[in-house]
Amino acid sequence: MEMQKHTSLLFLAYVSGVLAALEFARSSVVASYSPNMSCIWSEKQALLRFKRGLFDEFNYLSSWVGDDCCSWRGIHCSTTSHVIELDLRNCALRGDQIINSSLLDLKYLNYLDLSFNNFNEIEIPDFFGSFKELTYLNLSSSNFQGLVPHHLGNLSTLRYLDLSNNYDHDYDYDYAYYNSLRIDSMRWVSGLSFLEHLDLSTVDLSEASTDPFSTKKIFPNSISVLKLAGCQLDNSIFSSVSCKNLTSLVSLDLAYNHFNHSFPLWVVNNSGLVQLNIGSNNFRGPIPKSLESLTALSKLDISDNNFQGYIPQSLVKLSKLAHLYIDSNQFIGSLSESYCHLSNLEILSVSENQLSGNIPKCIGELSNLSELRLHDNYWDGFVSEHHLMNLTRLKWLTISSKSNLVLNISSEWEPPFQLERIAMMSLKVGPCIPLWLQRQREFTGLELRNTSISIIPTDWLVSLVSHAYFVDLSDNDINGEQLLFISTHSNHLHTLSLSNNYLSGGFPLFICNLTSLMILVLSNNNLSGELPKCLGNLSELSELDVMDNNFSGDIPVSLGSLGNLTYLNLHNNKFQGKLPLSFHSLANLVVLDAGKNHLSDILPQWTREQLPFLKYLILRSNSFHGKIPTQLCHRSSIQVLNLAENQITGSIPPCFGNFSSMITGGSTELNKGLENDIGEMIRYNVKGSDLQYTSNLKFLFSINLSNNNISGEIPEELMELHGLTNLNLTGNRLTGRIPDKIGELRKLDSLDLSRNELNGPIPQSLSELNSLSSLNVSFNDLSGRIPTGRQLQTFNDLSIYAGNDQLCGQAILKPCAGDTESRNPQNDSEVETDLCSDDERLWFYAGAGPGILVGFLIFCGSLHFFESWRYSFFHYVEHVFDKIAVTSALWRRKFKN
């Protein structure tokens, strides 16, 4: 405990030194300020002009009236009544115009904080570099954009600079924050010789990496805190030269960049480092032993990289470590018991590696641990109460194994902690919830997936739901109608997943009382009856998944009022009737899957303004009828369209060529709300099989119109969809030719045009589809030679061309007109060889004899004329004979014995 206190004090002493000095200076002058003194009139006018350029929605600046500006909110003055500090952080101010340069009249300003406001993507003004007395500048999370002005390099007295977007690594692993600021050169930073704290997190520094100056020393020696997370940095801008002699460095954050080399050895030269974060890059190789020289380190984060080998023993020598993140790498071997000597550890995260063996029992002796993350490894053995018995401060526990880990905790055990978050996956916990878990009353998150639980105590679940934020009991054996008789409400719970269980009966109505619910997953159960109208009251709901149940009746119209809904999966139920017209109000919807139901309607005719973010539309296996409406073409962001197995007529609209996401391959990021592991899933039929797409959903670009009654020709415009990966038009009445430009669909993985009325040849360009792994053009009226090509030659199934009597070619072992009948190319070559063999054999014998004779004469002549060659040859012959003689003698002696 004492060591932990010393570590904290050391870090505070380093990091807060400059802030303490600034605060002391400020408080000294402010304390001497007399309320009877008025501020300088010109400075008051400057502040008022600055205020006129701001929109103060919440009246934070309502105190900016009267003569004495020194008493206004956020203003501090010196003993001489000059404004020296302007602190407007987190005031929800909005600036739609250029910031008024009247602030330059504050000639003694040394502290400027405009962080956590909204300046609506205006540029940072150049004149900010003209405050000659400024020591503190904070513009973080304020929505500035554009090039950071080099004029900031003129702030010769600056000690603190923050242009970042705020994030907290401990809780936000996705790091999805956006900053539109960029820096094209770091030259101006090198001139800030007094700078101690620099935070450029999420500022785009990719242009700076091409500046030749990036290979020189960039940062002043005075830097103690350097935060460059998410700056799109690569190997070119950081080296032992650019970061030379940073002897004052205490905290370094390089997370979420693009480094892809071995561990940066220049880091270990900064022996005073207290915090080091290089997580979420692509560093690789082993961890160097020299890391043990960073003896002051209290936080080390190397997570989410490609580090390999064993977890180094050198880390054990970092006795002051409080936070250790080595998760999401490729470490192997076991977790050594020597890590139990790190008595100051508060967070230990070794999850998502390839660790094996037993989990050391001595972990239970790390009494300061508040977070222990061990999931997704290959642990063996068991986990008992001895692993946890002294962890009195434990708040977060995650355990799972891909091997044979057994949970062996006595049900009578009284844990010394109250957990806030627990995750146990792929362990046998059930069939009942253990008593020691039921005694945990402070859960904010609980995840018990694939743990063989079948019985849930009603009172425990009611208590859990009423105060937790996250509950996931998926992949268990929970059965029957246990949830139907629960009566509770909550304004805390935002995620509830009960998928892949054996729940039966109707929809659990208590869910309608979970007013803060954002994610609801009930897929793959045996629930039946109608969906209740009260679902429309869950105004925060962003993901609703009831796939693979037996729900019936009409889809509730009230779902159309869920304005935050991004993901709606109704797949494989027994819904009937029509798609509600109210769905046009789902302005944020990205995924709509109503496939495999009993819906009967014309296809929806949404306008251009409706459902602008829709990317995945799946209505397969219903009874939709009529023509495909051209309004569907307004969905330019569509990347998956599945209307298969309906009763659709008419032709394929040429305007399908407007699907811009399929032209470019689209964005690889799902829209808001779909980054979660729980809800991001659809079932899609590819190559004749139903496949479940989860994290790879974003790479699927597909059109499936199969098994309808569609006629006409295949539009040439479809050939413009260069990002398309799957095209299935089988089982229709399409006529005309296969478009010659089909070879331009270079990313095509699966193509099915079978069971239509297509005619003419198979285009030669089809052989250019090197990514094609599945092809079917059977049962058409195609004719001519089947193209050959590297990829096409891998298809050995002749049935993909069946039912096209006029096709010919090597692929189906049928010669084309003009080919030599009764012989395939291989036979031709064999016959040719036979016809020519007699002549060739005659010439071979005629030339072989003289050739051997001439060669022998040349050899003998060489030995005669070159004495050194003669000696070498006969010496070699003697050596061979000697070796044969010795070997023969040894074998004779062996047989005699």
UniProtKB/TrEMBL annotation:
Report one GO cellular component. Answer: plasma membrane
UniProt lists the family membership as follows: Belongs to the RLP family.
Its recorded name reads Uncharacterized protein
Q: What is the lineage of its organism?
A: Eukaryota, Viridiplantae, Streptophyta, Embryophyta, Tracheophyta
Q: Which UniProt keywords apply?
A: Cell membrane, Glycoprotein, Leucine-rich repeat, Membrane, Repeat, Signal, Transmembrane, Transmembrane helix
A Pfam family reported for this protein in Swiss-Prot or TrEMBL: LRRNT_2
Domain Leucine-rich repeat-containing N-terminal plant-type residues, every copy:
42-78
Organism encoding this protein: Daucus carota subsp. sativus
- For the Disease resistance R13L4/SHOC-2-like LRR domain, which residue ranges apply? 285-439
BP term (GO), one: defense response
Database matches in InterPro entries: Leu-rich_rpt (IPR001611), Leu-rich_rpt_typical-subtyp (IPR003591), LRR_dom_sf (IPR032675), LRR_N_plant-typ (IPR013210), LRR_R13L4/SHOC2-like (IPR055414), RLP23-like (IPR046956)
Please list every transmembrane segment annotated in the UniProt record, as residue ranges.
842-866
- Compartmental location: Cell membrane
Keyword Glycoprotein listed: yes
**Bilayer topology term:** Single-pass type I membrane protein
Asked if the record carries the keyword Transmembrane helix, the reply is: yes
Residues annotated as signal peptide: 1-20
